[in-house]
Design goal:
Layout lengths: L10 H23 L1 H12 L3 H26 L4 H20 L4 H29 L5 H30 L1 H19 L14 H11 L3 H32 L4 H9 L2 H8 L2 H7 L1 H19 L5 H30 L3 H26 L4 H25 L1
Helix pairs in contact: 1-5, 1-6, 1-7, 2-3, 2-6, 3-5, 3-15, 4-5, 4-7, 5-6, 5-15, 6-7, 6-10, 6-11, 6-12, 6-14, 9-14, 9-15, 9-16, 10-14, 11-14, 12-13, 13-14, 13-16, 14-15
Length: about 400
């Protein structure tokens, strides 16, 4: 493939780059999720308190959010493929460091560095797709790649549970680094995006950001973005904290089966591009956020592993469709400012991911149902604002 790509790639090439970026999305965002089931083991290993462990989980999300603010605008002036590749390699190095950390301080630093470099892939990949795919493939590509960010949650927690159960924490982090390097090599072989804002200065990009947040569809999408990983990470953090008291089980297989029931909902989101193209991202997003809110509210009423599994599956159906809908709304409204717009989106989902374990830990004494109802209320508020503002915009 040549460096000077001036027209969208053929369908076969487009599908190939979607596959590469989907693999990158799973590999990169796994780094956020794999420590959730390993947190009790890490707490014991490094002698951390519950509060310190919650901050260890939050460190990655905070650094991820800040990294989006840097790499998104930065990629507008650089080759997006190179930015993604550097991020993947940096995340791999951080994972190796975390797996062999000799102290809690080194672990914290490695997680922070990993979150920062992971952001170089996350927001940049979505902006890249919006520029390089032909219009008929764009909604499908955005739906698949953004859906894979949630699929990474299932894969990452599965790998983390394997570390607790058998192979060990160091092996888990090392294994998670390998696909990052492989995808980094593949990303450099993708077509070059047509960068329409390469000549803009940082000041001009800041003015673009100020303009974007005044667009109703984008401001509503940004509010929704905060709630996406807040709800996702918050629910599963709460399950990990309260499994014995609420579910009557601490068995790792049972806990992972509760994650697996979310796969159908995530797949619905991954293949939800045609739904978004037919009904519009605003309409699908409103329905999806409302469904996620209802699902997590019903989890609060569950009294067994089976009922938690059923209602969490409903929650994931809503969340699985909400993610690509919000991404598609931001991408369409931002037009040529996709890099800046996706940086804002990535920052806010990082803030949600950062806040989630802290919220779960803070509400743990009040009980798991209180956490679920809190998340339901947040999602319901986001749905109301998203529906009103996207219609108004």
């Amino acid at each position: 493939m040549t460096e000077k790509t001036t027209s969208p790639p053929r369908a076969a090439v487009g599908i190939g780059l979607i596959v590469v970026l989907a693999c990158g999305a799973v590999s990169a965002l796994m780094q956020l999720y794999l420590v959730i089931p390993m947190s009790p083991r890490l707490r014991e290993r490094y002698g951390m308190s519950d509060a310190t462990t919650a901050w260890m989980l939050a460190t990655f999300g905070l650094a991820f959010g800040l990294g989006n603010l840097f790499f998104g605008p930065y990629s507008d002036r650089r080759d997006r493929r190179s930015v993604m590749a550097v991020g993947l390699v940096g995340a791999a190095g951080a994972a190796l460091t975390a797996g062999h950390a000799g102290s809690a301080l080194v672990l914290f630093l490695a997680r922070g560095v990993g979150g920062f470099f992971t952001a170089a892939f996350a927001a940049v990949a979505l902006a890249y797709l919006g520029e390089v795919l032909e219009p008929r493939l764009r909604p499908i590509g955005l739906a698949i790649v953004s859906g894979c960010f949630l699929l990474a949650g299932i894969a990452g927690q599965g790998l983390g549970l394997a570390g607790v159960r058998s192979v060990g924490i160091g092996v888990v982090f090392t294994a998670s680094a390998v696909p990052l390097v492989v995808v980094a090599v593949l990303v450099l072989r993708l077509p070059r995006a047509r960068n329409t804002v390469a000549a803009r200065s940082s000041a001009e990009q800041l003015r673009s950001a100020a303009r974007l947040v005044r667009i109703p569809a984008i401001s509503a999408s940004y509010l929704a973005a905060v709630t996406l990983l807040l709800a996702f990470v918050g629910l599963y953090s709460g399950i990990s904290i309260s499994s014995e008291q609420v579910l009557g089980t601490g068995d790792l297989l049972d806990l992972y089966l509760l994650r697996l029931v979310g796969i159908p909902g995530i797949l619905l989101g991954i293949f939800g591009g045609p739904l978004i193209r037919r009904w519009g991202s605003a309409r699908v997003g409103l329905l999806a956020l409302a469904t996620a809110s209802a699902g997590v509210a019903l989890v609060a009423t569950a009294t067994s592993v089976l009922t938690v599994a059923v209602w969490s599956a409903v929650f994931m159906i809503g969340l699985g469709l909400a993610v690509p809908s919000v991404v598609a709304t931001v991408s369409a409204a931002a037009d040529s400012d996709r890099g800046v717009a996706m940086a804002g989106y990535g920052f806010l989902i990082g803030i949600g991911a950062c806040t989630a374990p802290l919220l779960a830990a803070a509400l743990a004494p009040a009980g798991f149902p209180v956490l679920c109802l809190t998340l339901a209320a947040v999602l319901a508020a986001a749905a109301a604002v998203f529906g009103y503002r996207t219609r108004a915009g």
